[in-house]
Design a protein that fits this description.
Pur_lyase; Fumarate_lyase_fam; 489 residues; 3 domains; EC 4.3.2.2; Fumarate_lyase_N; Fumarase C, Chain B, domain 1; two-stranded antiparallel sheet; two-stranded antiparallel ribbon; Adenylosuccinate lyase; 4 strands
Length: 489
């Protein structure tokens, strides 16, 4: 017998149950509600109302009183009764049919008329997917907007580029941010396309043939098609799938969740880059005044927001395997082994994407750049990068290219030995200045070592990319750009 609760005296019933941290710790209220029982079952009732209205309009013996009764009880769900009915019936849809019928005795005979469980189940899932995208897209737009402002601000600030995580040719802080933006823009288009491609399952019957509705309308095919069209329109969709089995194709779930998994990969890359730059002390995520980085090391400023994003992004990417497996193992018109998996994978994908975008908005609104640290790192590597410029300047001054190359090679290796073996600073420039061979170009050295001569067209690329690709992408979301994120860290 479990007596822990009575011993401690403070543990509530909720504390004795597992709660998904996606809801209890991370996700926004709007996304948590989107996949809630309240949203799900009130949507079921609205779908039954849509069906009754359309059937009545097309001539079935349904009265105004029955429809009004259903509408008046659309929100007052007796969840305890529904749970009790489901325990008895072992069928969630019929449990809610009985619960709805209990408070709508006049309408009871016509609730769910001609429909199958997937009429409410699948259509509700499609509504939740659509509404989930409508929550995510403005959040992604705000992340892109904040990062675009950051890229514009630092478009011409030189910084070391890294390939193989080794110092490479210079880029700019803003140009690097545009690499992140390019991936996010692809995700924006992917999410928008997946959302726009969603159709309604509509009223299709048990195996998708609409046989029950054809019987209800005494063989009138036009009325069956009109019923499908009317209910689809009432649910806010422009189109319904023309063919289904018992369910809509589970490839639709693959399409939706693949766009979210791709977003997860993007966010993981961005936040990994931020973590690497934080280690170099070049860029940091926001850090609250009283935030503690480590219980043992009070000086630490850990990139915990970026780490959270990476952690959750891995989960989002991993969830992609669920719809792929589910779509591949559906037999013929449908098997029920999709159900339990989808109850987990669909909500969790959207909940995970939601908190990732909220956290990333918080990060991008408060990124801190340390130009002096960046400058120091450039100074450490730039003399090596400038050797080709020095050689070309010497040749222009009358020197021999091969002789100059050998001089630079020897001096570079000596400077590298100081850096690697003695832990000293890169003194290549000082060695060049002391060598009489380079006297003809000493007055040019400062110009040859100006970091801005090494960044190519990075500032121009930033300006064009933002104006031609990023800003137009955000235009539909202008009215939603000022929303602030309330983030519980």
């Amino acid at each position: 017998e479990l007596i822990l609760g009575s011993c401690t005296g403070y543990l509530s019933d909720e504390s004795m149950k597992y709660r998904s941290p996606l809801v209890s710790r991370y996700a926004s209220k709007e996304m948590a509600y989107n996949f809630s029982d309240r949203k799900k079952f009130t949507t079921w009732r609205r779908l039954w109302i849509y069906l009754a209205k359309a059937e009545k309009a097309l001539g079935l013996p349904i009265t105004d009183a029955q429809v009004l009764e259903m509408e008046s009880h659309a929100e007052d769900i007796d969840f305890a009764m529904a749970a009790d009915e489901e325990r008895k019936l072992r069928h969630d849809v019929m449990a809610h049919v009985h619960t709805f019928a209990h408070c709508c005795p006049t309408a009871a005979p016509i609730i769910h008329l001609g429909a199958t469980s997937c009429y409410v189940g699948d259509n509700t899932d499609l509504i939740m997917l659509r509404d989930g995208f409508d929550i995510l897209l403005p959040k992604l737009a705000r992340v892109i907007d904040r990062l675009a402002n950051f890229a514009e601000k630092y478009a011409d600030l030189p910084t070391l580029g890294f390939t193989h995580y080794q110092p490479a040719q210079l880029t700019t802080v803003g140009k690097r941010a545009c690499l992140w933006l390019q991936d996010l823009a692809m995700d924006m288009r992917n999410l928008q396309r997946a959302r726009d491609d969603l159709r309604f399952r509509g009223v299709k019957g048990t195996t998708g043939t609409q046989a029950s509705f054809l019987q209800l309308f005494q063989g009138d095919h036009d009325k069956v098609e009109e019923l499908d069209r009317m209910v689809t329109e009432m649910a806010g969709f422009k189109k319904a799938y023309l063919v289904t089995g018992q369910t809509y194709s589970r490839k639709v779930d693959v399409d939706c969740l693949s766009s979210l998994a791709s977003l997860g990969a993007t966010v993981h890359k961005i936040c990994t880059d931020i973590r690497l730059l934080a280690n170099l002390k070049e860029i940091e995520e926001p850090f609250e005044k009283e935030q503690i980085g480590s219980s043992a090391m009070p000086y630490k400023r850990n990139p915990m927001r970026a780490e959270r994003c990476c952690s959750l992004a891995r989960h989002l990417v991993a969830l992609m395997s669920d719809p792929l497996q589910t779509a591949s193992v559906q037999w013929l018109e449908r098997t029920l082994d999709d159900s339990a998996n989808r109850r987990i994978s669909l909500p969790e994908s959207f909940l995970t994407a939601d908190i990732i975008l909220s956290t990333l908005q918080n990060i991008t609104e408060g990124l801190v750049v340390y130009p002096k640290v960046i400058e120091r790192h450039i100074r450490h590597e730039l003399p090596f990068m400038a050797t080709e410029n020095i050689i070309m300047a010497m040749v222009k001054a009358g020197g021999n290219r091969q002789d100059c190359h050998e001089k630079i090679r020897v001096l570079s290796q000596e400077a590298a030995a100081v850096v690697k073996q003695e832990g000293g600073d890169n003194d290549l420039l000082a060695r060049v200045q002391r060598d009489p061979y380079f006297a003809p170009i000493l007055d040019q050295l400062d110009a040859l070592l100006d970091p801005k001569t090494f960044i190519g067209r990075a500032p121009q690329q930033v300006a064009r990319f933002l104006s031609e690709e990023v800003r137009p992408l955000l235009e539909p979301y202008k009215a939603k750009m000022d929303v602030k994120i309330e983030l519980e860290l």
